[in-house]
Specification:
The protein is an alpha/beta fold. The protein has 2 domains: 1-32, no CATH class; 34-240, Alpha/Beta hydrolase fold, catalytic domain (Rossmann fold). Helix content is 41%, strand content 15%. The protein is built from 9 helices and 6 strands. The protein has helices at 2-9, 21-31, 50-61, 79-90, 105-115, 149-155, 172-182, 209-217, 223-240, and strands at 36-40, 65-67, 97-102, 122-128, 156-164, 185-189. It has a 6-stranded parallel beta sheet with strand order 2-1-3-4-5-6, sandwiched between helices. Helix 1 packs antiparallel against helix 2 and helix 4 (79-90) crosses helix 5 (105-115). The protein is globular, with a radius of gyration of 17 Å. The relative contact order is 0.14.
């Protein structure tokens, strides 16, 4: 719990709440909770995605609590059912929660976090082969009303988008647009296609270490990364003017 001790003392100025002692104490209490990861699969995925299952095993072995619901109607997605099933499995969100979404699981977790009550701030979002608006007939209910991107930024301390340069199901520019809207860091996989984990698919991924690394990075808050995020924010906002 070394990271918790640093949060409590404000060591090195790295407490995310600055010098406010009451907020630092709250962060310390949250930090003492067990780290929890919620994993949301995509369309036609369910329990068959090899790299998602690998990720769950790796996290469990490292002491994380893992929540990995299998949504019903996986072949003909019903967004309202998926959201209800995600809410039932996820339980209470807090600053020790990271949510991982893959493909159609990305807008599902975004809608869930966006509408979650009460207001919350989680440790991070890791979004793989994702999109933030309607693509190719995906369920429109996930995007109506439109997502408030600034709200999502406030609700997730770290945001990371991972996508391939030759994704044939979700065009890369969609994932790039999602990253811009979330002011997220981007990880590009060269030649990865849709980063599919289904065993029947040629070239299916059995492991995905980059996702594990990104996820663990969500729990590390340093002055160096804070500066990276500020520079990214400045770049995005200055480009609008």
């Amino acid at each position: 719990m070394a990271e918790c001790a640093r949060l409590e003392s404000g060591y090195g100025g790295n407490s995310i709440e600055g010098s406010n002692p009451s907020l630092s104490a709250r962060n310390y209490n949250d930090c003492m909770k067990k780290r929890r990861v919620i994993i949301a699969h995509g369309w036609n995925d369910g329990s068959t995605n090899q790299w998602l299952n690998w990720l769950a095993r790796e996290l469990t072995a490292r002491g994380y609590e893992v929540v990995q619901p299998v949504f019903s109607t996986v072949h003909v997605p019903n967004p309202q059912k998926w959201l209800a099933e995600l809410a039932a499995a996820a339980g209470e969100l807090d600053q020790q929660t990271v949510i991982v979404g893959y493909s159609l699981g990305v807008p599902t977790v975004l809608r869930y976090l966006h509408d979650y009550q009460p207001s919350v701030r989680i440790a991070g979002l890791v979004l793989v082969a994702g999109f933030g608006d309607g693509v190719g007939g995906r369920p429109a209910a996930l995007f109506a009303p439109p997502l408030d991107w600034e709200r999502l930024q406030r609700r997730s301390r770290s945001r990371i988008c991972i996508y391939a340069d030759n994704d044939y199901l979700v065009a890369p520019h969609r994932s790039q647009e999602l990253a811009r809207n979330l002011a997220a860091r981007e990880i590009l996989v060269v030649g990865g296609g849709h980063l599919i984990g289904m065993p029947i698919w040629p070239g299916s991924l059995k492991q995905f270490p980059a996702v594990l690394t990104a996820l663990e990075d969500c729990y590390t808050w340093s002055a160096r990364r804070w500066w990276y995020d500020v520079r990214l924010w400045m770049k995005l906002h200055l480009s609008k003017n």
